[in-house]
Prior knowledge:
Blueprint: H1 7-32, H2 38-71
Helix pairs in contact: 1-2
Amino acid sequence: xxxIKYTFLVQSLLVSGFMSFMVSGxxxxxxxxxxxxxxxVWINAWLIAYTIAYPAxxxxxxxxxxxxxxxxxxxxxxxxxxx
Length: 83
């Protein structure tokens, strides 16, 4: 197990991996269709996307977090009113 202080790095690694995997698969399919060597083309595209996605998320996530905290109220309470 890793210390809790590495949570951000591990979370970023996982999110960028999953997202780049799914997006590269969809884009590969949309561009080429289900060709004979689809999975090898997809994996190659994913590896390239992943090398870009991980550093990008490390840079972008702190800004996105700050912006989301500004856009969302901490005091928002969802009230359910009976009809």
